Amino acid sequence: MKVVIFTEDKVGEGHYQAAKAISHALGELSSGQVETNIVCGLRCIHPAVEWIIVKTYFAMIHYIPSLWDFMYTHLRRPSFFQRVVFSWKLKRWLEREQPDMILCTHPTCIAALARLKSTSPFSFKLGMVLTDFCFHPFGVSPYVDYYFVPHHSIKERLVQEFDIHPHKIFDFGIPVHPAYEEQVKGARPKAAGGALSPDKPIHLLILGGAMGIGPIADIMEQFRDRISQFKLTIICGKNRSLYNKLSRCAAPHIEVLGYVTNMAEWIQKADVVISKPGGLTVAETLVCRTPLLMISPIPGQEHGNRLYLEQYGLSRCIENIEDLPRTVLEWLEDEQARLEWEERVREHRKEQAAYHIARQVLSYIFP
């Protein structure tokens, strides 16, 4: 039996990490009976197509984010290129690989795969795994067999607005790697809501995603002179130029790192995470019960994540970087607010989402 997970690793690390989490859970639960492959869809279609789309996406969010916001908000259907040209390229791949099930943790190829299911004699099952607390309509199709969503509100929207049968939708949560839950179990319990010892500095973890996007240098500047109050760990991801820039001017209480493979450990150790609200980052901080302060959400999917977090009182967005030190101190000094936040986190954190998804997939393969 073969399961293929379509994802993308150059337009957001979270989609790829979700695919890895599901693959890990499938391998563990199936005891080797299921072959699981992770495929980057755009690269599968053609490396040149991947290059063009990735470059265009990052140019938009960096230079004209309003254009990406307009496209995300107003374009309701996938393009002809996405539906027809992608399906033509993927048909040959499907004929060669013959998977029993395809899961997508990124919506790029959903339209093409759904079209192939409707027009070709393929028998694979198709599942969509949402890795944000919102979704774009071009990831929805009547030919998608299963939807794995992060929250019951997404399930309700799929049912009410898109007439998807509720039996096809499972609100298991965003699949984070089991290492995050193992890290929480193995760590010393945190004080309620992040309460701190008065004799040690506050440990802030500053993230900018895999590409190190956001006002990270400005954040570092706000904490440069607060040596006794704060300790900073800044993870620059794959942004080598940012790493070199910050490393040259970091103060003694500021640690600058590049791409790391033990993010679970860093999130668990931190008192507060300051980051863009990527879907996986949100899910990881909830699993680790580490407070998240949002900065500079990307229009579209990250704006949707921001709305979810603010609606349920799980985080706040800092509009002015100069307010960060004061906001962190006020949050940690307000014991009642921390306890109320802790209660809300208990209600919204979804444990073992990757395993729940894997078990559901295996139940379809081995009924």
From TrEMBL:
Pfam families: Glyco_tran_28_C (PF04101), MGDG_synth (PF06925). SUPFAM superfamilies: UDP-Glycosyltransferase/glycogen phosphorylase (SSF53756). The keyword ATP-binding does not apply. The keyword Glycosyltransferase applies. Transmembrane segments: none annotated. Residues 15-176 form the Diacylglycerol glucosyltransferase N-terminal domain. It is found in: Membrane. GO terms for molecular function: glycosyltransferase activity. It is an enzyme of class 2 (transferase). It comes from the Bacteria. Residues 204-357 form the Glycosyl transferase family 28 C-terminal domain. This is Processive 1,2-diacylglycerol beta-glucosyltransferase. It comes from Caldalkalibacillus uzonensis.
